[in-house]
# Entry
Amino acid sequence: MTRDPSAWLKVSRLEAWYGDFQALFGIDFYLGEGEIVAIIGANGAGKSTLLQTIAGELPAAPEAVMFRGEPFGGKSAHQIVRQGIALIPEGRRLFPSLSVEENLQMGLHSRRSGPWTLERVYRLFPVLETCRKRSAVVLSGGQQQMVAVGRALMSNPIVVLCDEISLGLAPTVIKDIYAAIPEILASGCSIVLVEQDIRRALLAADRVYCLLEGRVSLEGLPADLGRERIAEAYFGI
Amino acid sequence: MWIDTILQGVLLGGLYALFATGLSLSFGIMRLVNLAHGDFIVLAAYGGVVAVNWLGVPLYGSIVVVLPLMATLGYVLQRLVLNHTLGQGILPPLLVTFGISVIIQNVLLTVFSADSQGLNTGAFQTTSLDLGGGIALGWFPLLVFATAVGVIVGLQLLSSHTALGRAFRATSDDPRIAQLMGIDHHHAYALAMALTMAVVAIAGIYLAMRTTVTPTIGPIRLLLAFEAVIIGGMGSLWGTLVGGIILGVAQSIGNHINPGFGLLAGHLAFLIMLMLRPAGLFPKTLDA
# Structure
């Protein structure tokens, strides 16, 4: 490798606050180009907060988030998605007044060009084409998650931040969603997966971080981390 | 005779729908309750008076002058002032727009005095379409009604068929997620207010053509607009037209019974609708 992979998307000594409550205490994290990285951890460990801060929903010091050599901390969310970092929010959060297709078209507001079009999203998730005119909220949970993934892809991102995409879904449905990941990677995206489902996260990821109470408690390659070390880092025991 | 009264009321409802559409838009998209809405209508009416009576712009050309000015004012006001009042509960926008209402009324009083002014439409005001059987519909009320229908059809098409309309509906549903999609919600809200003020400009010019205006008649237009919006259901544009028509017909019937009874009859109709359908006839935010 000719360049430092950690110089692509790099988070250093990141702190995040909700009012007076500190949620992140100096997180160091990086995502290399083409990589898929999992972030695991218990409820309240700060996983979603980390993604939301990278996506610009929470304030951060400018140099705390660097993307391709540029400071991204403190930019607003609409600017960051226009630079190619898309967040798939926890709980899917589709627009209820919009049809499936209109939800997907919302991704176009990033004003980015790239490989992802309506046709390609429908090829990835054929079931969505059959219900494209329906209101997004009448779909099953799995189909809604496909819309949420497709909507993010329509913005033609180069980094996709996935917040709990398997939450509340049946195992077979989770399998369908995860089956899309290789194609998303092949389209030139790098992926950050925040997951409660540790086994699935370890299977999919190149590298894994474990967060505990707002700090990184463990990081490494899935193959190198034993069950015991992960349990220790996860629960803090 | 009753048919005539009801038809006149329906046409009057077109004007009320124009008053109310802007209110419905800004509430539907931004959840902004604008207490200065009536005063903006009056401001636009005075804009028409200045353009036509002072500057000699042709009567219907005044809309070409006033509409872009009001839309620009709406954009700037939203960007500089109103955006800062949103997202912190219902009170800040109410207080700020109430203040704007007081400012507009006093500025208009200072500049134009309390004397009533209006736009003279000439013979057009008194000509009518004779339907026979003692029923005649004035061309001017017909024009106002047709404009109201046209504005609502236009806004519906914008809402359901354009990227901007999609962005408005998405921002109305969930401003946080809309930002994640790349929408600058401050800009989107300002565009929504510009659109609102464009409709306000049309309503104001028609108001000055229909009657004379004084600086303090804004609040009663606001009340009528509120009543039309609430009868129709918050955020539903066609509901707003129906609400305006119900108000107009009630006033027309009231006036027919006793010339002093018109406004009261409208308010009574509103109260009855509020008891029967508290959420309005077609409740929704901004329909596709």
